[in-house]
User: What shape does this take?
Amino acid sequence: MAGEREGPAIGIDLGTTYSCAAVWHHGDVEIIPNDQGNRITPSYVAFNETECLIGHAAENVVDINPANTIFGAKRLIGRRFSDPLVQKDSMLWPFKVISSHDDKPMIVVTYKGEEIQFAAEQICSMVLTKMKEIAEAFLGCSVKNAVISVPAYFNGSQRQLIKEAGTIAGLNILRLIAEPTAAAIAYGLQKKYSNTSPINVLVFDLGGGNLDVSVLTIENSIFQVKAVAGDTHLGGEDFDNRMVGYFVEEIKRKHKKDISGNPRTLRRLRTACERAKRNLSFMAHTTIALEHLYDGIDFEYKLTRETFEELNMYLFEECIGHVDKCLKDAQIDQESIHDVVLVGGSTRIPMIQQLLKDFFNGKELCKSIHPDEAVASGAAIQAAILSGHSEISDIELCDVAPLSLGVMTSGGEMEVVIPRNTPIPTKIKKILKKGIDRKKVRFSVYQGESERTRGDNTLLGEFVLSAQRNVSCLNVSFDIDANGILNVSAEEKDSRKKSIIDKVGGWLHKKKIDRPVEEASS
Ligand code: ADP
Ligand code: MG
Assistant: This one.
């Protein structure tokens, strides 16, 4: 804005576990340290009698105030309370998650003596506010513009919610960028994309909450995503959950005591498990020792790397399954991948590395980019490009839609409108025949790869159009923007009368939009 000094645009990696901010500065990326001098900030928010703490301050009180210290909120984004994954998580979390009247998970805390409910995106917005403040303190000016990274496998509504979280935090979101794509830019910049011939890169990003796998072709400064795969609910937290669950059973068996209803005990156990997991990345065994854990129990357990691996092997194998699927979708074989780039804290696990290496027939993995900082670096580069930094303006990104999108046919089948891995932005139109003429036409938008919509596919929105006359055919248009957010619009085919336009985003439920079809003036 004229007359107002606007700070630089920053990149924010809003992680499930840790967040990181970066900025393009003097021709290079700079990671922004927080008030404690750390380059990553825990995505924790804690509430007490007097204040709301975010980041390290919140993580520090987790053992004292477990029921009001929130972590992992990003895992709830865009999910229903009844989702089995939400049920499973909340059973092991020391804070309370309940259902709103429309099946949305709400986090319940006591703040300033009052019980308050927060949606996951509100907690995320608090973390983003903290990242904005960290950047402002470091840069000495106000920061408004940002690129925020999201899991590549996030759907449109999850992306929309992250965008809203950014807006609540007072940020102007220049763009959402897929996390592995951001990491690939950081990788590409490091290599100075020196190769004249195109190279294929597989980014394997395993963090605390999710796995993203992405196959890209990099040619000169053009980054073309070929395919993505992954799971928005598979990461370090799941390995911790498995350990916590194992020890809950162990204590039941050995001490005949059930600790699962006690937040403080669960929290102490979880912290110890996570620490043990990290140790086991560098050591063959470690000891978990928790004095006075519960009802007179002093808990001690010698955990070997082998036991840890046995507990989680099926999850590790799932990770490799996503790599296989991604390569198949990209139609690129193992031998044609030049580099397997590791991103995310959980890629430090030796067995993950071993399985990946085996899958790529003994190929050495690329560990040259920082697993905790690469995503923020890429987001900062994208922010700089979008705000007109000429020295990197030649970088071009082409991302894809991670999941197929379509409508349900009258027979309950999935009619795909946008197949997965279609380059975005994109706009695809489809004529939808609705058997009999009627004044009310209903159609449902689904995402997923199952042939039957009600199989494994997810309902994104249900639309009911009321027309002033009978309608037999609709022109339905699916529009995915550069952020990966889907908008659906529909109009009567025959009369070319304009009808509804609605965003398939935000909080999506079985939603009915009953609006009269408007007459266009044309
Ligand atoms: P996110 O992007 O989800 O915030 P990160 O990439 O920051 O996640 O990774 C955090 C996850 O990595 C946590 O689950 C943490 O326990 C795990 N992690 C960090 N260091 C190690 C390690 N040395 N060994 C195993 N897991 C680790
Ligand atoms: Mg991450």
Q: What stands out?
A: The longest helix spans residues 305-330.
